[in-house]
Amino acid sequence: MSTHLPIRRLFATALLATAVAAAATGCGDDTSGTAQSAESAPVAELSASSSPAEKLEAAVTRTLTAGPIRVSTTAGGMTTESQLDYTQRVTYTEMGDESSPVQGVLMRGNVVFVLPGQGAEGAKPGTWYRVSDSNGMSGMLDKTFDSDFVKKLVLSSKEIVDSGREDVAGTSTTHFVVTPDPEVMIDLALEALPEEMKSSGVDLRAAMRPQVPTAVHYWIADDGYLVKEDDGTQVKTYHSFGEPLDLPEFDEDTVEVLPGA
Question: What Gene3D superfamilies does the annotation carry (predicted)?
Answer without folding.
Answer: 2.50.20.20
